[in-house]
Write a structure and sequence with these properties.
The protein is α/β, with parallel strands linked by helices. The chain is about 30% helix and about 30% strand.
Length: about 260
């Protein structure tokens, strides 16, 4: 499984959001998409999920132009985790997670199959949610809700997993817990995983590939040590950073705004 993005451009009301984006993603690897607000991180993920239509360029999923996948076919391949799902949805954890099985269900609406229920049970156990299946969404903590959102995506059994800021609004423990789950699932099941992140340190910890966006363009692509460099971060983010070594790992810490002379 491989995703190839070739010359993709996206516009919102004639304003460019992505410009000539060309990049490739491989199975079994976690790719973190970083960049300042408005750089195009969410737009890239939504474009890959076919929630946004590019004005130019082509995206290939498993060697096929993704425009030619039927909606149900694409839903079996790609899962997008929307970070803005409201806990006010009047459903239990089970009822919410099992809706992720819709691409695999009978078109005649025969209900959930035994296989659907087995997949939900397996995924909920893997993510430590089995004891929460009967609980209402509005009774969950932020960390529990993030795991539920990921579980709903995983029961789709997709080959491509797209996560937009999965660690947002979480405390330190839950940030690591959620990203640990994502990395483990990616490696174990050979998924193509893209994560939009603001936290550069987490990107350095959990990514195999980093894509740095600036003003809708790809500024750099490569291993974390190749992209998370002082010169590139200062250029794209407009801040001054200091590089410190913690546990043998380089960490970039913002210390001031970059000021023009």
């Amino acid at each position: 499984m491989r995703i190839r993005v070739e010359g993709v451009e996206v516009e919102y009301d004639s304003t460019p959001a992505l410009r000539e984006v060309t990049v490739e993603f491989e199975a079994g690897k976690v790719a973190c998409v970083i960049g300042p607000n408005g750089a195009g991180k969410t737009t890239l993920l939504k474009t890959l999920a076919r929630l946004v239509t590019p004005s130019r360029g082509v995206i290939y999923i498993d060697g096929k132009d993704y425009r030619y996948y039927k909606p149900r076919e694409l839903a079996k391949l790609v899962a997008y985790v929307d970070p803005h799902i409201s806990k006010a949805i009047p459903s239990t954890v089970f009822e919410f997670i099992v809706t992720g099985r819709y691409p695999h269900q009978d078109l005649l609406g025969a209900g959930y199959s035994e296989e659907d229920l087995l997949v939900v049970e397996r995924v909920s156990k893997e993510l430590g949610l089995h004891h929460l299946l009967g609980r209402k969404l509005d009774q969950l903590s932020s960390g529990e809700l993030q795991r539920v959102l990921i579980a709903r995506a995983l029961v789709q059994e997709p080959k491509v997993l797209l996560l937009d800021e999965p660690s947002a609004h979480l405390d330190l423990r839950y940030r690591l817990e959620v990203l640990d789950i994502v990395r483990r699932v990616t490696a174990r099941f050979g998924k193509v995983t893209l994560i939009a992140l603001h936290d550069l340190y987490l990107a350095s910890l959990y990514s195999d590939l980093v894509v740095l966006l600036g003003n809708g363009r790809v500024v750099a692509v490569g291993r974390p040590d190749e992209v998370l460099r002082k010169d590139l971060i200062e250029l794209v983010y407009g801040v001054l950073v200091e590089e410190v070594i913690v546990g043998g790992r380089s960490i970039l810490i913002p210390v001031d705004l970059a000021r023009s002379s």
